[in-house]
Amino acid sequence: MQKLKLLPVFALALSTLFVAGCGDDDDTSGDGTSGKGGTASQGGSQNEGGAKNEGGAAASTSTEFVPPADPGKGGFWVTVSGEDLASVGYDFVKGALADGDPPAFVDGWAVHFDHVIVTVGNVTIHEDPDKDAGNPQDVGALVAKAAGPWAVDAAIGGDVIGKSESPDEKTIPIAAFASQDNGDPFDPESRYAFSYDTLAASEDATVTNLDDEGRALYAEAKAKGYSMVFAGTATYKGEAPEAGSVFASIPTEVKFTLGLKNPTSYINCSNTDLTAVGDEFPRGIQASATKSTIVQITIHTDHGFWDTLNVEGTPLHFDPIAAQASTYGMPDKPGTVTIEDLVDVDVTGFKTKDGEVLPWRSLVSDYDAPAGQMKYDTNGTSFKKANSFASYLAYSAASGGHLNADGECEVKNNFTP
Amino acid sequence: MTTRRSWLLLLALALAPVTACTGGTGSERFHFEARIRGTASTGDAYTFENESGWLVRLDRAQVTLGPVYLNVVPPLRDKSASIWDLLVKPAWADGASHLDSGRVVGEVLAQVSFDALSEQPVTFPALGTITQEEVRTADVWFYPEPGTPAEAKKLDTVALDIAGQATRGDAIVPFRGLLKLDDSWIANQTASTRGNTSLATIRQVRGIPASFFPDPGGFLEITFDVKRLLRGADFSNLQANKTDSAGVKLLIPGKAGDQVMTNLYQGLHEADGTYTVRWHSP
Question: Is A66 on the interface with B (CB under 8 A)?
Fold first, then answer.
């Protein structure tokens, strides 16, 4: 009898449970910033609950940026990293492609970045990263947010050692969450969905660690709407090319400046710091009761150089960029390439700056270069300008946003390539 | 008896919202007809100017494709099961990392050949089946004809049979070609290494935008825009190609093929442009 008396209550509760889980959530905008509940907290503001959530601040671009301090136990310390590949670059070592992690450029180029400038913002923490198994963009209530944005040079980094624990990976903190925006502590027993955006460069961005050259590049990025800028030098270190070949006309040193219009949302990322379930890592971040938890926004610099879109880890090439160098035909004279030089380059049939067919080549032992003209596979992606290499680079590089080194996020491109 | 009725009533009350979760029709599973057609043509010849400045006249564009899958949004790659998973076992389309994949809710397990230069719809030879749920993407697969061994690498199925003529200034380039999605398109990369693409992958077009809620009695219509396949084709790249006795340039298939064939291959795989997927309610 006692059980029967409880039945209506049980049924009503069960019913309510399902109703609560039904229907479309109006707050699921897909931009990773949606959610009901907690109020948004801008970086550096004092929230109602008394716990201080900070974003690093600089009054103007001429003021030195002060990274937010470690929020202490139970908090999240958000950093940005381009890993050691952004700070040290890609050396070329003759040998097997499979020996490297990541593999070297297969066409003999060593690539060093002077700047990997990214504008990051809309860092959000929501409840329930597993709310909808069919839709990772559908998460629970928003509990903390730092809008930023911040202009970060991942090639320079900061004072916090990154997830690789290599001293070469120096990350820079941009935000710290001591608590939820309503003052409640984060539950160390729960995972929270973590999302962020890369945004077009803007006056609103707090300039963090950019040097004078980086600030000049950022001014150009603001003018042209770039959300990423990769700038550096590529040096050919392979065997001397056959005389008379198109490769013999490519300068052996090429300075590149690739501004990319590719603002993107990285939503509800999986977390490689957590224990994998099978071969998959859980989504979300988890606080620690004894210390702060570093949440590392990680930008992989190799994605832009893949030869196939929408496939992870295809071989890296630099020849198609180098073949457009300003000094093509004068191999001993360093050349330059900007993204504007690549707009009209056709990825379905690469040619040199002089209009010669550019063949594939391999300088590693376990990658066989295809015969014939070099071409990239857009693999289902179309561009506003048909076959544009500049569009290809922007789209491919946009897939490089991760969490804690290798955690994968739902990637939502907020641009038409 | 009274107590038993109460149980049933309460159980029904408890479960009623479960059916309401799926759009009010209870995840009904039903069959539907699927059709495919080309886009509008101009008279006998299908003529258009592409972005490389070539005036292209198509005389033939026969496409063979299928099966077709209908998906909801990509899945969470977390193996934890929800209450819903306990009630309804989902089928997952395979996918690589964060770049694609989805949950399959509908399928048309048939292959169809149609004239892409004609607006006349062709019906798939088998009915599709679908669980009534919001569809957000579609996949078109170019699988071999029924009965072909799954491990077969050399396939004779022609995904696209195309012929026409391109004109730019004084240059006139008649051309024809057969596109087969076989292992000649697989990159020269060590098997099983990171980034290696499989034969199955090159036979699939994933993530075609679709947004509809299917209802019984309706039908699926796919529109195929053949112009997208030649959008960036530059026929000046065919100078070195062989010609037949009639002076028609023969397109070279495979990864070592010419720029025009590469554009055909990539256009056939273009998820956002070549295919339009709609549901027509009764």
Answer: no
Among B21, B188, B207, whose Cβ lies nearest the Cβ of A369? Answer: B188
**Residues B117/B41, Cβ–Cβ less than 8 Å:** yes
Nearest-angstrom CA–CA distance, B185 and B197: 10
| Cβ atoms A169, A88 nearer than 8 A | no
Residues of chain A with pLDDT under 70: 1-52, 54, 56-62, 95-103, 134
CA distance linking residue B73 with residue B27, whole number of Å? 16
Nearest CA in chain B to A131: B82
Answer whether B38's CB lies under 8 Å from B60's CB.
Answer: no
In Å, how far is B189's CA from the nearest CA of chain A? 6
pTM given for the model: 0.83
Strands A253-260 and A335-338: parallel
- Least Cα distance to A193 among A111, A276, A264, A295 occurs for A295
pLDDT of residue A326: 98
What residues contact residue A317 under an 8 Å CB cut-off, 6+ apart? A105, A106, A107, A305, A307, A374
Omega prior to B67 cis, within 30 of 0: yes
CA dihedral A399, A402, A407, A409 (to 10 degrees): -60
Count CA within 13 A, CB hemisphere, residue A197: 25
The residue type of B36 is I
In this structure, are residues A336 and A256 in contact, taking their beta carbons and an 8 Å threshold? yes
For A63, A360, B78, the CA distances from B188, given in Å and listed in that order, are 51, 11, 33
In sequence order, the 6+-apart residues with CB closer than 8 A to the CB of A7 are: B6, B7, B10
Given B6, B189, B272, which is nearest A382 (Cβ)?
A: B272
- How far A318 CA lies from chain B's nearest CA (Å)? 17
Report the distance separating Cα A138 and Cα A73, nearest Å.
Answer: 28
Give the whole-angstrom CA distance, residue A358 versus residue A368.
16
* Residue A154: per-residue pLDDT: 97
Alpha helices in B2-107 (DSSP H): 2-20, 83-87
* Tokens representing residue A292 in the block: 């702060």
What distance in Å separates the CA atoms of residue A412 and residue A268, rounded to the nearest whole number? 11
Whole-angstrom distance, CA of residue A118 vs CA of residue B267: 32
- The CA–CA distances, whole Å, from B192 to A3, A63, B99 equal 58, 50, 18
| pLDDT tens, residue by residue, B184-222 | 888 766 655 666 677 888 888 988 989 899 999 999 999
Cα A244 to chain center, whole Å? 40
**DSSP state string for B143-210:** PPPTT--TT--S----SEEEEEEEEETTEEEEEEEEE--SGGGS-SB-TTSTTPPPHHHHTEEEEEEE
Q: How many CB pairs under 8 A join A and B?
A: 182
Helix/strand/coil for B231: coil
What ipTM does the predicted assembly reach? 0.78
User: Which residue do the tokens 């693999």 mark?
Assistant: A379
Taking the mean position of all CA atoms in its chain, how far away is CA B71? Answer: 12
Q: Where does residue A322 rank: exposed (0-12), middle (13-18), buried (19+ CB within 10 A)?
A: buried
